[in-house]
Design a protein that fits this description.
This protein has 179 residues and is α/β, with parallel strands linked by helices. It contains 4 helices and 10 strands, in the order ββαβαβαβββαβββ. The chain has helices spanning 35-45, 62-68, 81-93, 131-134; strands spanning 24-27, 30-32, 52-56, 73-78, 99-103, 116-121, 125-126, 137-149, 152-161, 164-172. The longest helix has 13 residues, at 81-93. The two termini are 29 Å apart. It binds S-adenosyl-L-homocysteine. S-adenosyl-L-homocysteine (SAH) is lined by residues 26, 30-33, 56-60, 62-63, 77-80, 83, 105-107, 122-123, 176, 178-179.
Length: 179
């Protein structure tokens, strides 16, 4: 986390808050997640040196930047073209070269680049982790995603083993909705 300057991923007017442990607005009603939560999700994903990672809901690019320090390559997908462009600029400014940002619907994943060793989702799915994303996990792969059900929102962790998927429900969280 000390390697990634968070101030490069927020608007100039918010830079003085870049090292406060809270979410910040990044435009279009979206937010850059709280650093401690980003750290927790990176830890749960257990990302390793050679991994290829998919980041859904790339937003400012901050979470993707942290993941990129732990793995071989990150594919980031962001629905809002303006945010995707800004994320690519911020990543370049941070000197990060192993993240590819695409403006597209991340709920469909990125079948052309699958399977992924890890999939990180930063927008809340309703009821279930999208099956199309789970299916793009390699055997041994891990996925973390916020999921809402019965008016509550939790991180759901999915591990794909040789015989199928194992799921566990973890921390209560709040993210913007996956559209
Ligand atoms: N990881 C981001 C936090 C982004 S907030 C960061 O570090 O800054 C969630 C993001 O998910 C928003 O930018 C929103 O536009 C995006 N999003 C919502 N639904 C999406 C979808 N179906 N595909 C891709 N991005 C989506």
């Amino acid at each position: 986390m000390a390697d990634v300057p968070r101030e490069l991923f927020v608007a100039p007017a918010l830079r003085r808050f870049a090292y406060v442990d809270r979410p910040l607005p990044i435009g279009g009603g979206q937010t850059i997640s709280q650093p401690s939560l980003v750290a927790r999700m990176c830890e749960l994903l257990d990302v390793r040196d050679g991994d290829i990672v998919l980041d859904v809901g790339t937003g400012s690019g901050y979470h993707a930047a942290l993941l990129s320090r732990l793995c071989r390559h990150v594919y980031g997908i962001e629905l809002e073209a303006d945010l995707a462009e800004q994320a690519a600029r911020s990543l370049r400014a941070a000197g990060i070269e192993n993240v590819t940002v695409l403006a597209a619907d991340g709920a469909a994943g990125l079948p052309g680049r699958a399977p992924f060793d890890a999939i990180n989702v930063a927008a809340t799915a309703s009821e279930e982790v999208p099956l199309r994303l789970q299916d793009q996990l390699a055997v041994g792969g891990r996925l973390i995603a916020p999921v809402a059900s019965e008016g509550r929102e939790h991180l759901v962790f999915v591990h794909r083993g040789p015989d199928g998927f194992e799921r566990s429900r973890l921390d209560a969280v709040r993210f913007v909705p996956l559209r």
